[in-house]
Amino acid sequence: MISYAAFWATLKESQESTYTLIKNHHISSSTLDKLRKNRPLNTTTINDLCRILNCRVQDVMEYIPSDNDQIL
């Protein structure tokens, strides 16, 4: 499972907010909803978030091993 808990911690430490991500950086509210719910995002979005927040990928997301998300 991919967790975006690191994103929320990184966002809190930055000078950005969900408001500025939407209004200034054109990140959609549906993307923020996906981040809240740990839903899949594409790598372009991850790249954009890293650029905006000036951070590394691991500051946005983390892989947590889970048997529940295995595709059979």
From TrEMBL:
Residues 10-65 form the HTH cro/C1-type domain. Keywords: Plasmid. GO terms for molecular function: DNA binding. The keyword S-adenosyl-L-methionine does not apply. InterPro entries: Cro/C1-type_HTH, Lambda_DNA-bd_dom_sf. This is HTH cro/C1-type domain-containing protein. It comes from Vescimonas fastidiosa.
